[in-house]
């Protein structure tokens, strides 16, 4: 089997196997744990923090609400200063995407 056919088969097997995937600017093959910015507000304090997450198992089951509104509710935030994200993934088996909101 040549390299092109092997690569195509490996990609197809991975795609249909239901691997857990999280949206992230950098994904490690074995483990991912990254944070990054989404948006920044105008001169608002950031004494409160709220975090909302969505989880994925094997690419088969995804649950959770990682929306900005959910994170605002968790932190009791009415005015948003910053919005960040964090992504975690372990061996393409488990993934987590979180939205972190700071504000007042």
Structural topology:
Elements: H1 3-16, E1 31-40, E2 48-57, E3 61-64, H2 68-75, E4 80-90, E5 94-103
Antiparallel strand pairs: 1-4, 2-3, 2-5, 4-5
- Total count of helical runs of at least 4 residues: 2
Q: Strand order within the widest sheet?
A: 1-4-5-2-3
Shape: elongated
Oligomer: single chain
Q: Write down the Rg.
A: 17 Å
Strand segment tally: 5
Q: Span between N and C termini?
A: 60 Å
What letter string, H or E per element, gives the SSE order?
Answer: HEEEHEE
Largest sheet: 5 strands, antiparallel
Report mean pLDDT, rounded to a whole number.
78
The tally of structural domains comes to 1
Helix content: 10-25%
Strand content: 35-45%
Q: Low-confidence spans: pLDDT under 50, at least 5 residues?
A: 6-23
Sheet/helix structural class: alpha+beta
Outline the structure in words.
- By secondary structure, the chain is of the alpha+beta class.
- It has one domain (20-103).
- The chain has helices spanning 3-16, 68-75; strands spanning 31-40, 48-57, 61-64, 80-90, 94-103.
- A five-stranded antiparallel β-sheet has the order 1-4-5-2-3.
- A hairpin with a 3-residue loop joins strand 4 (80-90) and strand 5.
Descriptors:
single chain; 104 residues; alpha+beta; 2 helices
Provide a brief overview of the structure:
It contains two helices and five strands; from the N terminus they run αβββαββ.
């Amino acid at each position: 089997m040549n390299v092109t056919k092997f690569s195509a088969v490996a990609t197809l097997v991975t795609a249909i196997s239901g691997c857990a995937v999280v949206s992230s600017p950098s994904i490690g093959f074995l483990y991912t744990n990254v944070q990054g910015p989404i948006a920044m507000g105008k001169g608002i304090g950031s004494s409160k923090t709220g975090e909302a997450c969505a989880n994925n198992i094997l690419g088969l089951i995804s649950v959770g609400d990682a929306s900005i509104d959910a994170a605002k509710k968790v932190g009791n935030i009415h005015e948003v200063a910053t919005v960040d994200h964090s992504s975690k993934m372990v061996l393409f088996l488990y993934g987590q995407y979180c939205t972190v909101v700071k504000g007042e």
